[in-house]
Amino acid sequence: MSTIRLIAPSGFCVNQAAAARGIERLKASGHRVENQSVVPRRFQRFAGTDEQRLADIQDLSALPEECDIVLAVRGGYGATRLLERIDYSRLGLAFRQRTPIICGHSDFTAIQLALLSQTGTVTFSGPMLAGNFGADELNSFTWQHFWQAITEPKFTLNWQSPTPACSASGTLWGGNLAMLVSLIGSPWLSVIDGGILVVEDINEHPFRVERLLLQLHHAGILARQKALILGSFNGATLSDYDGDYNFDEMCRMLQQRLSIPVLRGLPFGHEPETVTLPLGAYGELQHDGQTASLTISGHPVMR
Question: Is 31 annotated in the active site?
Fold first, then answer.
């Protein structure tokens, strides 16, 4: 049994029923769920005032020994407001003594990248309370991959990617594409040299994804990577205006521009079925032109 502490540093949890369902599922699986008061908390569109949401993060420096997992309730906008007020020194000191499993995605990427930049803390880009654990039907793939990532010190992900063969190794990092790009030029994004960058997003038309990726390219960030892995990019609707321009065409254009491998197809992101990735861990990528294999190590695991 693990103890899970909920945090809500971003948007108000509109789907309260899903959050309640997620809590009951976790409890039914034998886990203790603490800090449930953050779920109904609300100020304007946010999950509480800036001070309340900031306290969710600051309090992580004084977690009790029995707390194993820190889980974000949901995404939505709000985390960016907190970045300049977080006491990274205090958090870094606490995490060097004991690093909890900190998991979330979407807007939470901003805090994850800031923690990685300022303290070197590895956090997990993966399921959240409402959208994943509280889904109408719990996805077994997502559930299994979450527990694999946080309990196994070394694990391997395999997926199909009909792109040119390649191999690479380096620091695994990334998360939500829009959030990553929003931090370019700020103190909360330390660009990883020789890394494996994995990105995902939702409700972004292929041309918007292209624009975000080209911003990373123009900023010189992509050229510094060993490989780029594209997760899921769902929720966009194409129209007649797009002609034959779609996500596939965007990827082809991108690969022509870049000198690094671009892989696709990893089930990662705003999907019911998603893997969990430790951001800041070590990744070893092998790809034979059809099947990609990513072996991950160097991340915190449950004791």
Answer: no
List the chain domain ranges: 3-138, 154-297
* Residues 115 and 137: beta-carbon distance below 8 Å: no
What are the CA-CA distances from residue 243 to residues 94, 207, 240, 246, 254 (Å)? 53, 12, 6, 8, 18
Q: Taking residues 265-288, report their average pLDDT.
A: 98
Condensed to tens digits (0 to 9), the pLDDT of residues 172-211 reads: 999 999 999 999 999 999 999 999 999 999 999 999 999 9
* pLDDT value of position 1: 82
To the question of domain 3-138 being in CATH 3.40.50.10740, the answer is yes
Q: Catalytic one among 270, 271, 287, 299?
A: 270
106 with 137: CB under 8 angstroms? no
Active site (annotated) includes residue 273 = no
CA atoms of 61 and 53, how far apart (whole Å):
14
Task: Give yes or no for a contact between 88 and 115, defined as CB atoms under 8 angstroms apart.
Answer: yes
pLDDT value of residue 303: 80
List the one residue out of 23, 87, 94 whose CA is nearest residue 65: 94
DSSP code at position 163: S
Residues with Cβ < 8 Å from 11, sequence gap 6 or more? 45, 46, 47, 74, 75, 76, 77, 78, 107
Instruction: Check if 65 is active-site.
Output: no
Q: Report the C-alpha gap between 201 and 221 in whole angstroms.
A: 18
Averaged pLDDT, 34-61: 98
CATH topology of domain 154-297: Glucose Oxidase; domain 1 (3.50.30)
- Rounded average pLDDT over 147-162: 97
Computed over every residue of the chain, the mean pLDDT equals 97
β-bridge mates for residue 158, sequence order: 293
Question: Of 2, 10, 106, 117, which is the active-site residue?
Answer: 106
